[in-house]
Write a structure and sequence with these properties.
With about 170 residues, the chain is mainly α. About 85% of the residues lie in helices and about 0% in strands. It contains 7 helices and no strands. The longest helix is centred in the middle third of the chain and has 28 residues. It is elongated. The termini are far apart.
Amino acid sequence: MKGIFQTYIEWIKGNRTVVYGIQCVVTLGLLICMSIQDIRKKQISLWLLLVLAGFSVVMAIISGWSENEIKKQIFVRALPGMLPGGIMVLFGKLSGGALGEGDGYTTVTLGIQLGIFSVIECLLQGMVLSGIYSGILLLTGKGNRKDAIPFLPFLTAGYAIFLVVTAIDRI
C-alpha cells in the first residue's frame, strides 16, 4: 500500500500543472452549478457547498505534501484566504441577510484554495461585474436599488476571469 501511495505522491509532484488544471475545472464546474441555483432559487445547495469545501481542503493538502509545505498551505494560504469570506458571513448575519451567507461561505471555500490575495481579486472582479449589471438594470428601469440580485454568478465570473488572467501570466 505504501508503494501505491508513494507513487501517487510522486505523480502529483511531477504533474502539478495537471492537478492545478483539474482543480480549476472542478471548482469552476461547482461554482457554475451553484450560480444556477442562486439565480433560480435565490439560495445555494448545502451539499454542493460541502462538496466544494471538501474539495478545497483536499486540494490544499495535495498542493503541499511535505510537512513544511502543508504548514505553509494552512497558515500562509488557507487560513488567511478564509478571512474575506468570513467577513462576508459576518456582514450577512449583521445585515439581516442583505448580503447572502451562501456567498460568504462560498468565498471561504475559494479562499482555502486561492489564498487571500487571489480570493480578494475574484471578489473585486465579481463586485465590478455586479455593479455594472445593477447599473444597467437601474438605467433601463428593470430594477430599483432595493432589488436583490444573486452575487454568486458574478463571483463565478470573477473566478473565471482570474483563471484566464493567471493562465496568460503563466505563458
